[in-house]
């Protein structure tokens, strides 16, 4: 067997696009309807550009750590150690929530594809959620994202078909002067008039979540020859493909039904073989995307568990030391006041351990939690709105902004030494000296915080 040398640029693009494009693409026509055509296209482009910048900032921040060790947690502990666990908790909850929404969507859509005689909707939904374990569990136990490149290709094929279905229905509608669309599913078109401030803010949260890529650090870590030039190229290609698909699907879907469009566009089409195939492929797509989102969820959970465990062990040692002899502690290297930030900085160069036992234990605990919540919850839209307004904004804007503002164009010798130590060949790259990119990073932080508050408010208080 040939030695694994890293992921190719092509497989990295495939995994990036597949991670980004999920079920959110099907509500983008509804976002266009809410925003109006001009504003909707602008928001899609604006969010795509900012997400792309955030992904490049993540790639740049990975250069200050040993190759393959960069995660949201490890970068936090060399920039803002006091916030490391908090940020990882937010990332975990975002990924965990998205995976719950995928399972809920599976239970909602598959009964429309195939119905069992004598079964009620709730029973069929439960059956389809549980049967998805046949694919979800084995794929979620894969240790490297690059091992999922073939499932990613299958998922991308599903995306292509769904996009083709939306395009074809739009072409048929236009070519027949919209006579192929039932009158109750056909509304007026709005070029510039949005439907209100709150609806626009709510759909912005959907768009942010649609662009979110929580696996960027893993993709960069597995990339063969991960230079900043290659990282920027992969990000540019991936985001360009994604933006083209998002805008074209959003416009095609909206211009098929107009303001009569409601929610998931696949539910607007007639129940023929082509639509049913599209719905089945949608579920295949989200099931195959599940392990890509599950990967950072597991990593973040392990990071949190590792820090909490170490803090507890050190706390117990401190108590034992103090209780045995106040004058002569058993562990003199432990200070009398434990500072979690100091502790995290001290462990910054060590990899967070994940043994095989821990890997499988954490995986099964999280999978059990995903399926339990998916069975208990039935509001796909609410889950998606909340995780998009919080975790999606955090991953896309706020965290990359914090990293870029701290690490780029820095006068701190320690930061410069880290770059020279781990990425000497990249130390002269203009990205690491760019004050413009540093200021853009600050803008991402401010913009992300504003967007989080507004989107969360609009999602919860309709």
TrEMBL record:
Gene Ontology CC terms: fungal-type vacuole membrane
Key words, A-Z: Membrane, Transmembrane, Transmembrane helix
Compartment(s): Membrane
GO molecular function, a single term: L-arginine transmembrane transporter activity
Record membrane topology: Multi-pass membrane protein
UniProt domain Amino acid transporter transmembrane: residue ranges: 6-416
Pfam families: Aa_trans (PF01490)
TM region positions: 12-31, 37-57, 85-105, 125-141, 153-176, 234-257, 277-294, 357-376, 382-405, 440-460
InterPro entries: AA_transpt_TM
PANTHER family named in the record: AMINO ACID TRANSPORTER, VACUOLAR AMINO ACID TRANSPORTER 7
Record family assignment: Belongs to the amino acid/polyamine transporter 2 family.
Protein name: Aspartate/glutamate transporter
Species this protein is from: Pichia kluyveri (Yeast)
Source lineage: Eukaryota, Fungi, Dikarya, Ascomycota, Saccharomycotina
């Amino acid at each position: 067997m040939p030695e694994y040398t890293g992921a190719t640029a092509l497989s990295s693009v495939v995994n990036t696009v597949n991670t980004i494009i999920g079920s959110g693409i099907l509500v983008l026509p509804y976002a266009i309807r809410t925003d109006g055509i001009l504003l909707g296209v602008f928001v899609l482009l604006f969010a795509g550009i900012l997400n792309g910048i955030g992904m490049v900032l993540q790639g740049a921040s990975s250069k200050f750590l040993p190759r393959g060790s960069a995660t949201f947690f490890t970068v936090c502990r060399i920039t803002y150690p006091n916030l490391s666990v908090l940020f990882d908790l937010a990332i975990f909850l975002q990924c965990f929530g998205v995976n719950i929404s995928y399972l809920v969507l599976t239970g909602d859509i598959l009964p429309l594809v195939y119905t069992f005689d004598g079964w009620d909707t709730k029973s069929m939904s439960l059956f389809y959620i549980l049967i998805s374990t046949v694919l979800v569990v084995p794929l979620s136990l894969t240790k490297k994202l690059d091992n999922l490149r073939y499932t990613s290709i299958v998922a991308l094929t599903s995306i292509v078909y769904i996009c083709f279905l939306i395009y074809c229905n739009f072409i048929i509608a236009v070519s027949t002067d919209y006579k192929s669309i039932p009158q109750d599913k056909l509304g007026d078109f709005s070029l510039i008039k949005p439907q209100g401030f709150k609806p626009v803010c709510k759909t912005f949260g959907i768009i942010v979540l649609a662009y979110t890529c929580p696996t960027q650090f893993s993709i960069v870590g597995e990339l063969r020859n991960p230079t900043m030039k290659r990282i920027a190229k992969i990000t540019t290609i991936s985001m360009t493909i994604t933006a083209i698909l998002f805008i074209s699907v959003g416009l095609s879907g909206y211009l098929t039904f107009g303001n009569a469009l409601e929610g998931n566009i696949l539910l607007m089409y007639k129940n023929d073989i082509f639509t049913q195939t599209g719905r089945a492929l949608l579920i295949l797509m989200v099931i195959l995307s599940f392990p890509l989102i599950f990967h950072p969820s597991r990593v973040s959970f392990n990071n949190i568990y590792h820090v909490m465990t170490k803090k507890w062990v050190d706390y117990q040692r401190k108590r034992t030391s103090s209780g045995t002899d106040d004058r002569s502690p058993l562990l003199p290297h432990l200070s009398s006041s434990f500072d979690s930030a100091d502790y995290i900085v001290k462990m910054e160069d060590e990899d967070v351990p994940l043994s095989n036992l821990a890997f499988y234990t954490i995986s099964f605990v999280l999978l059990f939690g995903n399926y339990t919540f998916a069975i208990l919850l039935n509001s796909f839209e609410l889950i998606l709105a909340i995780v998009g307004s919080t975790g999606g904004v955090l991953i896309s804007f706020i965290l990359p902004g914090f990293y870029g503002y701290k690490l780029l164009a820095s006068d701190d010798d320690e930061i410069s030494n880290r770059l020279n130590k781990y990425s000497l060949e990249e130390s002269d790259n203009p990205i690491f000296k760019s004050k413009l990119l540093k200021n853009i990073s600050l803008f991402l932080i401010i913009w992300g915080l504003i967007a989080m508050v507004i989107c969360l408010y609009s999602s919860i208080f309709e």
